[in-house]
Amino acid sequence: MAPIPFILDTDTAQDDCVAILLGILDPVADLRAITMVAGNVGFEQQTDNALMTLSVAGALGDVPVFLGCRRPMVRPWVSAENVHGDGAGGLSMETSGLKTASEHGVDALLRLTAESPGELTIVAIGPLTNIAMAVVKDPSFAGRVKSLYIMGGSNNARGNITAAAEFNFYVDPDAAKIVFEAGFDITVVPWEPLTVRDALFSREQMAEIASSDSPVARFFTAVCETTLEFDESVGIPGSSHPDSMTVALLLHPELVTHSAAYAVDIEADSELTRGYSAMSWGVHGLKPNARVIESIDSAKFFEYIKSTMATVTTPSRPIVGL
């Protein structure tokens, strides 16, 4: 199978780190670039988290990291630090001498897709600010992207930051609205019910992953623990992995057991339902603009994560606390 080239747009914390690891360690993956967007934790912290993740995989310097938008398009930034802590489980790495790319993340998205039109997929696992800004700057951008995989929203189900909204769409609903109207070939990986049902690992499964004791597995355990504790505190019985699932479904579409075409729109005006993703399933006379994943093979997904996290690597730089 030919490697799948893609760009990962991320607000690196917890499962975003796992998504990066898949982009490096899976032989099917051809991770061309990482673009950073304001989301889960402070911008500098999430950038450090991305660099540390590359280091754990032994790939520091192999994939360019571009700094994108540091706040949503219109609204103040909202963090998820109450969920993720620092997003790195307290791990840290000396970053002296390390440099991110000088080009802005939005410009990198435009340039890379112009250099390889129709070849690159974008996997967006944070708020959609960078993607929307690229559309605003160059409306032909959407036509150059092979496909856009989005982790976000809930499929006619509850949110995870408000009753109505999932975090990524809530943080920048204006960007999400632009993206769904831009003409991308979109696949949506929603929080509810998909993640909470099919991409949730129990404490026992987390222990199985940790048992390989590779640097990657130890890193995985550390970065996921804070979020696992939060999930348990709100009644979710396990560690949630929506971001790594999104990358996994691009690289291994056979994991998808059911998907359907939907007309998706985002609420950006009401404060009560800000970020709500209205997903119409075909009975309302609306033209579909996205494929929404409805179920995956959760057992195979777990085995995939378990085997990939067992990969033996030599970290590029020492990780304090690992």
The Cα radius of gyration reads: 18 Å
CATH H-tier superfamily: Ribonucleoside hydrolase-like
Distance between the termini: 34 Å
- Structural class category: alpha/beta
Q: How many strands, what sense, and barrel or not for the largest sheet?
A: 9 strands, mixed
Shape: globular
Q: Report the uncertain regions.
A: none
Q: What is the residue-averaged pLDDT?
A: 95
Classified by CATH, the class is: Alpha Beta
CATH topology group: Inosine-uridine Nucleoside N-ribohydrolase, Chain A
- Percent in strands: 15-25%
Roughly how much helix do the residues carry, as a percent range? 25-40%
* Largest beta sheet: strand ordering: 3-2-1-4-5-6-11-9-10
Number of domains: 1
The total beta strand count reads 11
CATH architecture: Alpha-Beta Complex
The total of helices stands at: 13
What does this structure look like?
The chain has helices at 15-25, 43-56, 81-84, 105-115, 129-137, 141-144, 167-171, 173-180, 194-198, 203-210, 215-233, 242-251, 298-309, and strands spanning 4-10, 29-36, 65-67, 121-124, 147-151, 186-189, 200-201, 239-240, 256-266, 277-280, 290-296. The chain is α/β, with parallel strands linked by helices. The chain has a single domain (4-309), classed as Ribonucleoside hydrolase-like (Inosine-uridine Nucleoside N-ribohydrolase, Chain A, Alpha-Beta Complex). β2 (29-36), α2 and β3 form a beta-alpha-beta unit. α10 (203-210) packs parallel to α13. The protein is globular and about 55 Å long. The mean pLDDT is 95.
